[in-house]
TrEMBL record:
This is Lignostilbene dioxygenase. It comes from the Eukaryota. Keywords: Iron, Metal-binding, Oxidoreductase. InterPro entries: Carotenoid_Oase. Belongs to the carotenoid oxygenase family. Its cofactor is Fe(2+).
Length: 495
């Protein structure tokens, strides 16, 4: 028997009035949405199943007048609905339809809505990069159905990391493997504030690979092309969707204009070996593009095989993810390799978030998780005390001063992705709150911590305790209470 049922939450819950220690600012009103991949059924290929394939279980923390209510619901993807009806898993390996049960193969897509929750055009969307956005009711978390941006979306895939432009109200997005599994086709598009596509360009990357995130500035979009390549042959053989090309000694940045682009406008800049995953932010300065990201020094998903079929070769004690900054002319020569301007922060850095109002614009701060290996995390694993590496440090790095602030929540805690919450629409940039879910291993439950963004070292203003343990989640968003009210009024008017 696999440990599947111990490691998963699998329930849907409403918790009214979470315990609050400390003080939540009285005027803070809104909802923090986040999602965790949470297998609803024992996987068919249990021994080689990967966490990226868990069913999307979305949670909401509704904050108003100093009180917090919690809710979590599975997204009713066609996969979950079919598997619930069958009372067992029907879908096979991650993004490999050739391993699905013949009853569903080629009929239902085994996709999971498990990566991000984003609010645009008063609609809440659960996202998975291999398909379209799934709309959820922001109050009840009920699944409404797939969104096609009022019939304007042609691309069958949609990144889980679209970028909202606070100046124009647009959502800048793309899909990869856009012409089918393992195709190098990218569809880059823009959705306006009314939820309709206004820009769309299709072009081909030099090879098909996992393009999990990207950068968008006022005038450019940039796609990180890494060595985690997609292979139709491998899928047809019953294997994984991706393999790691360990022989590749460079990566690429694919640059294309954000507006009015044609396929020929795409340009590919060579960058040093590593593995791109999440970006932090990008902006334009003096005609140059400035791109920030934590870049892994090796494959960050060790469960994927390399070209020889070998897995788990990445040494977790050696792999790093420093924060790098690239600066180059998007119209300049692609002949020579572009090197990062510098390593801004050493070590393992992941899940960086900024004040989203500054996406694509010049900014100063990132709030990000770090692994400090000198401070192991004490966990109690079925009665056995042991140490575990993990994201034990919440950090804020200031790009202007080069200084960091760090915070650790006791010796038994790791963090999930932090998010930035503006104090009000008018509040100055980066002056807000940080909300972050913390895993508290001794208590075997989670808390939501609320910090003053500009000084995390003084500790949380409030610790909001859940009565149970969540799984490690991925990404989430803060939605202002006004947005939620508009969405719920629209719904009342509709039904
Ligand atoms: C990621 C997560 C995914 C996925 C591809 O963090 C990349 C990266 C949870 O699913 O399918
Ligand atoms: Fe992600």
């Amino acid at each position: 028997m696999s440990k599947w049922n111990e490691d998963h939450l699998r329930f849907e819950a409403d918790v009214y009035e979470l315990e609050v220690y400390g003080k939540i600012p009285k005027d803070l009103h809104g909802v923090f949405f986040r999602v965790q991949p949470d297998h609803a059924f024992p996987p068919i290929f249990a021994d080689t199943e990967i966490p990226l394939n868990g069913d999307g279980n979305v949670s909401s923390f509704y904050i108003k007048d100093g009180h917090v209510d919690f809710k979590c619901r599975y997204v009713r993807t066609p996969k979950l609905v079919a598997e619930r009806a069958a009372r067992r898993a029907l879908f096979g390996r991650y993004r490999n339809k050739y391993t699905d049960d013949p009853r569903v193969r080629d009929i239902i897509k085994g996709t999971t809505a498990n990566t991000h929750v984003v609010f645009h055009d008063n609609k809440l969307m659960a996202l998975k990069e291999d398909t379209r956005p799934m709309e959820l009711d922001p109050i009840t978390l009920e699944t409404i159905g797939y969104l096609d941006y009022h019939g304007t979306l042609r691309c069958p895939t949609h990144t889980a990391h679209p970028k909202a432009d606070s100046a124009t109200g647009e959502l800048v997005a793309f899909g990869y493997e856009a012409a089918g599994d393992a195709t190098p086709d990218i569809c880059s598009f823009t959705v306006d504030k009314h939820g309709k596509l206004t820009e769309e360009v299709w072009f081909k990357a030099p090879w098909p690979c996992m393009i999990h995130d990207f950068w968008a500035t006022d005038n450019w979009v940039v796609f990180p092309i890494n060595g985690l390549k997609a292979s139709l042959e491998q899928m047809k053989g019953g294997g994984d969707h991706f393999y790691w090309d360990e022989n590749l000694d460079y990566q690429l940045l694919g640059v294309i204009p954000r507006r009015g682009a044609t396929p020929d406008d795409a340009r590919w800049f060579k960058t040093p070996q590593g593995c791109y995953s999440h970006t932090i932010n990008a902006y334009e300065e003096d005609g140059q593009l400035v791109l920030d990201a934590n870049v892994w020094t090796d494959l960050h998903f060790p469960f994927f095989p390399n070209t020889k079929g070998e897995r788990f070769l990445t040494d977790p004690s050696k792999v790093r993810a420093p924060i790098l900054r690239y600066r180059f002319d998007p119209k300049g020569s692609t002949e020579h390799m572009i090197h990062p301007e510098g390593v801004l922060v050493e070590g393992v850095n992941e899940f960086g978030r900024i004040d989203d109002r500054l996406l694509g614009k010049k900014y100063s701060r990132v709030w990000i998780l770090k692994i400090d290996p000198t401070k192991p995390v004490h966990i109690n694993d079925n009665g056995i005390e042991k140490d575990k590496p993990g994201f034990n440090v919440l950090s804020c790095y200031n790009f202007d001063t080069g200084k960091s602030q760090n915070y650790q929540h006791g010796d038994d805690s790791t963090f999930q992705e932090p998010i930035f919450v503006p104090k009000s629409e008018e509040a100055s940039y980066e002056d807000g709150y940080i909300l972050v879910v913390v895993n508290r291993y001794r208590e075997r439950r989670n808390s939501l911590l609320l910090f003053e963004a500009l000084d995390i070292t003084k500790g949380p203003l409030a610790e909001i305790k859940l009565p149970f343990k969540l799984m490690d989640g991925l990404h989430g968003s803060w939605v202002d209470g006004k947005g939620i009210e508009v969405a719920s009024q629209k719904k009342k008017a509709k039904f």
